[in-house]
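Researcher: Please translate sequence to structure tokens.
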Amino acid sequence: MEKKILTALLVAVLVLSLVGTLGCSLVTKTTSTSGATIKTIREAKIGSEWAVKQMEITLGKELPIVLKLASGDDVEGYFYLEKGDDVDFSIKGSSSVYESEPEDTNNPRIASDRFSFTATKSQGVAYTLTLTNPTASATEPTKLTIFLEIVYPATGSVYIPIETE
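Model: Translation complete:
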């Protein structure tokens, strides 16, 4: 009996130490905020210097995502619509850093985009990536589903504000 308990305890310690050592490269976590549902698909470190966060977002009206960075930090990423026709995307520090533009002036819809920027001292340490549903009405918003990937320095942080009532 004692041998079985010690064996089970040893196996549990071994599994926990492996998870702690190897980390978690695949995380599925769902959060609801600001009329959006965010499902974290993957959150991982890339070497010791970089981190990646992949999310599937069901967007009602608008979702701000805040990145905390240091001056000189590089960020890049992309998004695409899985469901829907059009989304507005912008990045702001203390002023506008980037705004998605339609590729075709005859079709002013944005279905995907790549972005990259370098944090600067003049823009501050907090950058807000904002996804906005341009077709959302106050009464019945048309939901969009968006895949978003952000690659940022491992020293940075990603925050998704929660809504309180």
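Researcher: Any highlights?
Model: The CA atoms of residues 118 and 152 lie 10 Å apart.
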